[in-house]
Structures are given as structure tokens and as C-alpha cells.
């Protein structure tokens, strides 16, 4: 008994003498599961102040997509020619999405992210959001006769009188997925809705690398929606992901 007490005392002394760096080093030797449990329980806190700042900046300094004189929107590396409603929201960047996806879902950190998305969007963003809903819905309507439409229509959104920051992020995530789908075409190409429909008509043999690219984009966005608690978007992304994987 005395021997056990001595060992316990020595262990406590060693742990109390550990620096945070040494604790991290020891902790990194354990499994990812233990790491996640420690994060969830609050043993290790996740500093996401930089991410919150990046989120705030993504709302305050975004550059809207405006159609040029030919009616083309510069989306990613491509020019998408489409008769749209005017200025719309740009796709969310991969860098921002990856940073959000790295936050453990259902943790204190994820709750901070969700809190940052609760606020109402300002009038300018709400106007862009309203246009973006029209844009996305109009693009989707072009696929109403396709077998894939049952999945794609999950991205349809109803217009609102006002929008939250969460709504803005959701629309930018959908735009990110659409931008990824345009990567089928060479960089800089002017792409029409007819070109996109030809690709997804079922008559074109899609390369597995391209499908993997789309699946990766959808998977990343699913991870983000899990962190942000957007179950509606998560379900929509999951349906489209299953459809994309079914093409293989």
C-alpha cells in the first residue's frame, strides 16, 4: 500500500512539473481518438481567434462577382457566361473552408464558430445573398430534366427578407462546389450553361480524377457544415456526394 502511495506521489509530482510543451509532446504520442476526447472535454483548448477574425474579414471585405460586358462571371479560374441577376456572392476560398473544417465538431471551438455566424448580414450582403439565391436556383433549374436533379435540387434556397451570416456562408459554399465543377474545363475558358449541361448529361465519360476532385470538394464542404451546424446544407451536400460517387 505504502509503495503504491509513493508511486502515485511521484507521478503527481512529475505531472505537476510538466510544461505545456512536454504535455503536448506526450499527448501527441496517443491516438487521435484520445486527442479528440481531450479537446471535447476541455483539457486542451483550441485557439480559434484567428479563424474568427478570418470569418469576420470574409464578410467585411469580400469582392462580389459582377458580370462583365459579355454577361460572364469570373468564377474561380473560369468565365461562366450566364444571364444572372447582377452582382452575386463569390465562392468561399479553400483556405477558409479548410480552416473551419479543422475545428472539432460539437466542441467549444465549434460553438464559437456557430456564434460568430448567428448575426444578421448587413444590407449589402443581404442584397448579394438575394441575387445569389436567384443565380443558384436559375442554374439548377437547367438540370430539371436530368436524373441527377433529385440530388441537385437540394441546393435550392428560398429567398428571405433578411439573411444571417450563416446563410451567406452557405451560399458561398454552394458557389464553391459549383466553381469546383467548372474545373472540368481548361483554365480561362468561357463556359456556358450548355457546356456544363453537356458534361453532366451522362453522354460524356468523366475521368475518375475529376470525379475525385468533385467528391473531395463536397467532402470538405460537408466537414465545414458539420462544424457550423448547418444540417440542411450537410444533407444537401451528402445527397450530391452520393450522386457524384455513383457516377464511378
Major sheet: arrangement of strands:
1-2-3
Count of strand segments: 3
Return residue spans where pLDDT drops below 50 for at least 5 consecutive residues.
Answer: 1-45
Distance between the termini: 64 Å
Overall average residue pLDDT? 84
As an assembly, this protein is single chain
Biggest sheet descriptor: 3 strands, mixed
Query: What percentage of the residues does DSSP assign to strands (E)?
Result: under 5%
Describe this structure in words.
A three-stranded mixed sheet has the order 1-2-3. It has twelve helices and three strands, in the order H-H-H-H-E-E-H-H-H-H-H-E-H-H-H. Mean pLDDT is 84; it is low at 1-45. Helix content is 60%, strand content 4%. The N and C termini lie far apart (64 Å). It has 248 residues and is mainly alpha-helical. Strand 1 and strand 2 (78-81) form a beta hairpin.
Amino acid at each position: 500500500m505504502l509503495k503504491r502511495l509513493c508511486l502515485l506521489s511521484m507521478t503527481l509530482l512529475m505531472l505537476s512539473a510538466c510544461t505545456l510543451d512536454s504535455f503536448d509532446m506526450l499527448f501527441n504520442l496517443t491516438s487521435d481518438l484520445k486527442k479528440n476526447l481531450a479537446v471535447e472535454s476541455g483539457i486542451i483548448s483550441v485557439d480559434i481567434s484567428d479563424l474568427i477574425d478570418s470569418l469576420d474579414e470574409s464578410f467585411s471585405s469580400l469582392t462580389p462577382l459582377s458580370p462583365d460586358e459579355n454577361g460572364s462571371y469570373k468564377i474561380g479560374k473560369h468565365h461562366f457566361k450566364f444571364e444572372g441577376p447582377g452582382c452575386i456572392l463569390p465562392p468561399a476560398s479553400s483556405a477558409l473552408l479548410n480552416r473551419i473544417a479543422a475545428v472539432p465538431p460539437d466542441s467549444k471551438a465549434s460553438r464559437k464558430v456557430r456564434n460568430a455566424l448567428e448575426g444578421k448580414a448587413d444590407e449589402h450582403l443581404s442584397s448579394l445573398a438575394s441575387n445569389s439565391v436567384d443565380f443558384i436556383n436559375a442554374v439548377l433549374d437547367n438540370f430539371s430534366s436530368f436524373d441527377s436533379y433529385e440530388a441537385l435540387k437540394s441546393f435550392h434556397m428560398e429567398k428571405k427578407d433578411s439573411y444571417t451570416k450563416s446563410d451567406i456562408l452557405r451560399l458561398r459554399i454552394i458557389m464553391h462546389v459549383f466553381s469546383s465543377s467548372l474545373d472540368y474545363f481548361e483554365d480561362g475558358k468561357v463556359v456556358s450553361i450548355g457546356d456544363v449541361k453537356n458534361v453532366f448529361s451522362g453522354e460524356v465519360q468523366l475521368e475518375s480524377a475529376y470525379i475525385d476532385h468533385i467528391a473531395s470538394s463536397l467532402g470538405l464542404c460537408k466537414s465545414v457544415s458539420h462544424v457550423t451546424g448547418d444540417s440542411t446544407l450537410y444533407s444537401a451536400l451528402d445527397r450530391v456526394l452520393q450522386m457524384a460517387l455513383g457516377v464511378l
